[in-house]
């Protein structure tokens, strides 16, 4: 009976020891898992912190360039709008120049046309030159008329006549410059010098 009781106690002790060993192994496994999880959590935390820092740097760079770019674009648009504003004097000058060039181009075409006689060409030149130079002569005649009336009436007419004479002279010079410019362009001279203007003037008065 004593042997049976001792054998039963030994079996129970071995079973208890086995269960205790299994429990210790489970505890150790749980500890290892917790250690690994802590290490992973630390790595994840570092990655999250690094990612946040990168995002902050990127956002600051974006804000910096977004703050600079619109002002540059706005200034460029402002300059473009300024450049597009038409100059009324330049537009009027271009229209007058185009008309004068068209008239002289027509004269050159008629000069090269064999079907137009010399007499017809001379009459054509007189008509076109008369049309172009009519304005300065009309202003001069008006000024002379006012000047003649000014001696009999008052000095106001005299000053008006002098002003009209100055306007007539400026108009004549303007037309002469356009004629010389057309002659130089037709001869392939786009950056003329003083002697080029002299030679062009000689060609025009022939």
From TrEMBL:
<keyword id="KW-0472">Membrane</keyword>
<feature type="transmembrane region" description="Helical">
    <location>
        <begin position="159"/>
        <end position="177"/>
    </location>
</feature>
<protein>
    <recommendedName>
        <fullName>Pv-fam-b protein</fullName>
    </recommendedName>
</protein>
<keyword id="KW-0812">Transmembrane</keyword>
<keyword id="KW-1133">Transmembrane helix</keyword>
<dbReference type="Pfam" id="PF12420">
    <property type="entry name" value="DUF3671"/>
</dbReference>
<dbReference type="InterPro" id="IPR022139">
    <property type="entry name" value="Fam-L/Fam-M-like_plasmodium"/>
</dbReference>
<feature type="transmembrane region" description="Helical">
    <location>
        <begin position="128"/>
        <end position="153"/>
    </location>
</feature>
């Amino acid at each position: 009976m004593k042997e049976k009781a001792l054998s039963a106690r030994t079996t129970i002790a071995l079973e208890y020891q086995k269960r205790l060993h299994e429990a210790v192994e489970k505890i150790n496994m749980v500890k290892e898992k917790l250690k690994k999880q802590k290490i992973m959590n630390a790595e994840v935390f570092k990655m999250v912190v690094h990612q946040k820092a990168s995002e902050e740097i990127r956002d600051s760079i974006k804000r910096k360039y977004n703050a600079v770019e619109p002002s540059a674009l706005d200034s460029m648009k402002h300059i473009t709008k300024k450049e597009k504003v038409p100059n009324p004097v330049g537009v009027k000058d271009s229209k007058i120049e185009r008309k004068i060039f068209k008239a002289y181009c027509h004269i050159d075409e008629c000069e090269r046309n064999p079907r137009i006689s010399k007499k017809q060409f001379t009459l054509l030149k007189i008509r076109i030159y008369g049309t172009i130079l009519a304005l300065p002569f009309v202003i001069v005649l008006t000024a002379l008329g006012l000047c003649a009336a000014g001696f009999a009436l008052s000095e106001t007419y005299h000053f008006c006549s002098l002003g009209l004479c100055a306007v007539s002279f400026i108009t004549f010079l303007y037309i002469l410059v356009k004629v010389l410019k057309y002659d130089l362009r037709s001869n392939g001279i786009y950056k003329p010098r003083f002697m080029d203007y002299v030679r062009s003037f000689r060609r025009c008065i022939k």
